[in-house]
Protein backbone atom coordinates (compact mmCIF):
# COMPACT_ATOMS: atom_id res chain seq x y z
CA UNK A 1 0.00 0.00 0.00
CA UNK A 2 1.48 3.35 -0.99
CA UNK A 3 0.90 6.60 0.82
CA UNK A 4 -0.45 9.59 -1.11
CA UNK A 5 2.08 12.33 -1.76
CA UNK A 6 2.17 15.16 0.79
CA UNK A 7 0.31 18.35 -0.10
CA UNK A 8 2.41 20.96 -1.88
CA UNK A 9 4.10 23.56 0.27
CA UNK A 10 3.10 27.20 0.00
CA UNK A 11 5.32 29.11 -2.37
CA UNK A 12 7.39 30.72 0.39
CA UNK A 13 8.44 27.33 1.83
CA UNK A 14 9.06 25.68 -1.51
CA UNK A 15 11.35 28.46 -2.63
CA UNK A 16 13.33 28.83 0.61
CA UNK A 17 14.25 25.22 1.24
CA UNK A 18 13.10 22.74 -1.41
CA UNK A 19 12.91 19.20 -0.10
CA UNK A 20 14.48 19.95 3.28
CA UNK A 21 13.16 20.75 6.71
CA UNK A 22 11.37 24.05 7.17
CA UNK A 23 13.75 26.61 8.71
CA UNK A 24 12.80 28.02 12.11
CA UNK A 25 12.35 31.54 10.77
CA UNK A 26 9.65 30.38 8.31
CA UNK A 27 6.12 29.25 9.22
CA UNK A 28 5.60 25.49 8.99
CA UNK A 29 2.27 24.97 7.22
CA UNK A 30 0.54 21.63 7.93
CA UNK A 31 2.95 20.96 10.80
CA UNK A 32 2.35 17.72 12.71
CA UNK A 33 1.70 18.00 16.43
CA UNK A 34 5.17 16.90 17.56
CA UNK A 35 6.92 19.37 15.30
CA UNK A 36 4.56 22.18 16.33
CA UNK A 37 5.27 21.60 20.04
CA UNK A 38 9.02 21.34 19.41
CA UNK A 39 8.99 24.60 17.43
CA UNK A 40 6.99 26.25 20.23
CA UNK A 41 9.72 25.50 22.77
CA UNK A 42 12.58 26.15 20.32
CA UNK A 43 11.23 29.62 19.54
CA UNK A 44 10.53 30.25 23.25
CA UNK A 45 10.65 34.07 23.23
CA UNK A 46 10.84 34.84 19.51
CA UNK A 47 8.28 37.51 18.68
CA UNK A 48 9.51 38.05 15.11
CA UNK A 49 8.57 35.86 12.17
CA UNK A 50 5.37 33.98 11.54
CA UNK A 51 3.55 30.90 12.81
CA UNK A 52 1.15 28.81 10.76
CA UNK A 53 -2.33 27.88 11.87
CA UNK A 54 -1.15 24.32 12.50
CA UNK A 55 1.67 25.49 14.77
CA UNK A 56 -0.70 27.74 16.71
CA UNK A 57 -3.66 25.38 17.08
CA UNK A 58 -1.62 22.27 17.85
CA UNK A 59 0.04 24.13 20.73
CA UNK A 60 -3.34 25.46 21.85
CA UNK A 61 -4.66 21.86 22.02
CA UNK A 62 -1.59 20.69 23.96
CA UNK A 63 -1.92 23.56 26.44
CA UNK A 64 -5.61 22.79 27.02
CA UNK A 65 -4.77 19.12 27.66
CA UNK A 66 -1.99 20.15 30.09
CA UNK A 67 -4.45 22.45 31.86
CA UNK A 68 -7.10 19.74 32.16
CA UNK A 69 -4.58 17.21 33.51
CA UNK A 70 -3.23 19.68 36.09
CA UNK A 71 -6.76 20.57 37.21
CA UNK A 72 -7.66 16.90 37.62
CA UNK A 73 -4.54 16.37 39.71
CA UNK A 74 -5.40 19.47 41.75
CA UNK A 75 -8.91 18.19 42.46
CA UNK A 76 -7.62 14.73 43.34
CA UNK A 77 -5.07 16.29 45.72
CA UNK A 78 -7.85 17.94 47.72
CA UNK A 79 -8.39 21.29 46.07
CA UNK A 80 -11.82 22.97 45.86
CA UNK A 81 -13.54 20.88 48.51
CA UNK A 82 -16.73 22.10 50.16
CA UNK A 83 -18.19 21.24 53.54
CA UNK A 84 -21.76 20.00 53.86
CA UNK A 85 -22.91 23.51 54.79
CA UNK A 86 -21.50 24.98 51.56
CA UNK A 87 -18.42 26.60 53.07
CA UNK A 88 -15.00 26.01 51.55
CA UNK A 89 -12.73 23.52 53.25
CA UNK A 90 -9.06 24.43 53.63
CA UNK A 91 -6.72 22.99 51.00
CA UNK A 92 -4.62 19.96 51.77
CA UNK A 93 -0.84 20.02 51.56
CA UNK A 94 -0.98 18.16 48.25
CA UNK A 95 -3.33 20.72 46.74
CA UNK A 96 -0.99 23.52 47.81
CA UNK A 97 1.94 21.78 46.10
CA UNK A 98 -0.10 21.23 42.93
CA UNK A 99 -1.19 24.90 43.04
CA UNK A 100 2.45 25.95 43.12
CA UNK A 101 3.24 23.63 40.19
CA UNK A 102 0.29 25.09 38.22
CA UNK A 103 1.56 28.61 38.93
CA UNK A 104 5.10 27.76 37.81
CA UNK A 105 3.90 26.05 34.62
CA UNK A 106 1.61 28.99 33.85
CA UNK A 107 4.40 31.51 34.32
CA UNK A 108 6.86 29.41 32.31
CA UNK A 109 4.46 29.18 29.36
CA UNK A 110 3.21 32.78 29.41
CA UNK A 111 5.97 34.40 27.32
CA UNK A 112 6.20 31.65 24.68
CA UNK A 113 2.41 31.58 24.33
CA UNK A 114 2.34 35.34 23.78
CA UNK A 115 5.22 35.03 21.29
CA UNK A 116 3.35 32.31 19.37
CA UNK A 117 0.19 34.44 19.28
CA UNK A 118 2.18 37.41 17.94
CA UNK A 119 3.81 35.22 15.26
CA UNK A 120 0.33 33.93 14.30
CA UNK A 121 -0.88 37.51 13.93
CA UNK A 122 2.14 38.21 11.71
CA UNK A 123 1.16 35.30 9.43
CA UNK A 124 -2.21 37.00 8.90
CA UNK A 125 -0.39 40.28 8.12
CA UNK A 126 -1.31 41.99 11.39
CA UNK A 127 1.05 43.70 13.77
CA UNK A 128 1.75 41.87 17.02
CA UNK A 129 0.37 44.88 18.87
CA UNK A 130 -3.11 43.65 17.90
CA UNK A 131 -2.78 41.14 20.74
CA UNK A 132 -3.78 43.94 23.12
CA UNK A 133 -7.23 44.07 21.56
CA UNK A 134 -7.84 40.92 23.59
CA UNK A 135 -8.02 43.17 26.67
CA UNK A 136 -11.41 44.43 25.48
CA UNK A 137 -13.97 42.11 27.08
CA UNK A 138 -15.70 39.67 24.70
CA UNK A 139 -15.29 41.75 21.51
CA UNK A 140 -11.48 41.65 21.72
CA UNK A 141 -11.44 37.87 22.15
CA UNK A 142 -13.74 37.43 19.15
CA UNK A 143 -11.58 39.67 16.97
CA UNK A 144 -8.43 37.76 17.99
CA UNK A 145 -10.16 34.44 17.30
CA UNK A 146 -11.04 35.63 13.79
CA UNK A 147 -7.42 36.72 13.23
CA UNK A 148 -6.09 33.36 14.51
CA UNK A 149 -8.48 31.45 12.23
CA UNK A 150 -7.65 33.55 9.16
CA UNK A 151 -5.43 31.92 6.57
CA UNK A 152 -1.91 33.11 5.82
CA UNK A 153 -1.46 36.24 3.76
CA UNK A 154 1.59 36.64 1.49
CA UNK A 155 2.07 40.21 2.74
CA UNK A 156 2.83 38.73 6.18
CA UNK A 157 6.28 37.78 4.87
CA UNK A 158 7.33 41.32 5.79
CA UNK A 159 7.66 40.04 9.36
CA UNK A 160 10.13 37.29 8.39
CA UNK A 161 13.78 37.63 9.29
CA UNK A 162 15.60 34.88 7.36
CA UNK A 163 18.75 33.66 9.10
CA UNK A 164 20.15 31.55 6.29
Automatic annotation (TrEMBL):
Bilayer-crossing regions: 56-74, 95-117, 129-149
Entry keyword Membrane: yes
Xref: InterPro entries: DUF805
GO cellular component: plasma membrane
Superkingdom, natural source: Bacteria
Alphabetical keyword list: Membrane, Transmembrane, Transmembrane helix
Name this polypeptide is given: DUF805 domain-containing protein
Species assigned in the record: Subtercola boreus
Amino acid sequence: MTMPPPPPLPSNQASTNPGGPVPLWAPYYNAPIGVAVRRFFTKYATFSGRASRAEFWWWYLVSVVISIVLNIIYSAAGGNRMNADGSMQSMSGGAIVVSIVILIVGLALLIPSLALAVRRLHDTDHSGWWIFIGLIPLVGAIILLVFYLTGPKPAGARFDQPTS
